[in-house]
Amino acid sequence: MRQPSDPFRVAAVGDLHCREDHRGRFRELVREANAQAHVLLLCGDLTDRGLPREASTLAEELSALRIPCLAVFGNHDVESGHAEEVEAILARVGVRLLAGDHSVVEKYLGVAGVKGFGGGYGNATLQAFGEPTVRAYVQEAVTESLRLEAALGQLDTPRKVVITHYAPIPGTTEGENPEIRPFLGTSRLMGPIDRYGAQVVFHGHAHHGAPAGRTDKGVPVFNVAYPLLRKQDPPLRFRLHEL
Q1: Fewer CB within 10 Å, N- or C-terminus of the chain?
Q2: Does pTM surpass 0.85?
Q3: Are 12 and 162 within 8 A, CB to CB?
Q4: Are 225 and 206 in contact (CB under 8 A)?
C-alpha cells in the first residue's frame, strides 16, 4: 500500500501527432517513462488525422510501456470520424481513454480527463447568444466542462490530476497568435478544477504557448504539447511531475 509520503511521479505529454511513418519515433519516450514515472498521461492529438493506421503505429510504439497509460483525445483524433476505432486500437495495448470520466492508479492518484473545447477566457468568453451555430459552439464547451465536473466529483483519492487537450487558462496560450488563442481553450474548464481541488492540470494543443501557468485559485497548469517540450533547454520528451 502506497504511503502518503511516498513519491509518485507522473509523466505527461500531448500532441504526439503520430503518423504511419513514425515507427521508432517515440521509443525513447516510452523507455524514459518506464524508468522514471509511475503513470503516463497523454493529453490529446495522439494521432495526426485520427486514422486507424496512425493509431496502429502509435499502439506499436506504446506496446513497450510497463506503467499505466491514461489519455484524452484531441481535435486531430476525431478529424476523420474513426474515433471509436482509434480508441479500440489503443486499448489493446493498455491505453485507457478518458472522455468525461476518471481512473484511479494504485488507489492514490485519481485522474479526470476530457478533450475540452474552445471559446475564450474570462470576460471575453463566448456566450450562447445569436445564431444557432454560435449557441451550438458554446454548448460544446459547456458540455465538456460539465463532463469534467462529473469526473472530478467522483474522485476520492489522496491526489487528483486533470488532463485535457484544450487549455483551461489563457496563461499557457501566451506566445500563440492572439487571433487564435480563444480557439485553444476556455476558462469554462477552469471552474471545475478550482471547485474540486485538483493538485495539477496537464493539457496540450498550444504548440507555441507558454509551458506553465495557474488557475485563479493557484492550481498549477502545465502545457505539455510535444512540440513545445522539444523546444525546452534541454529538450524534453515529457514533463515529469512528482506528487
Answers
A1: N
A2: yes
A3: no
A4: yes
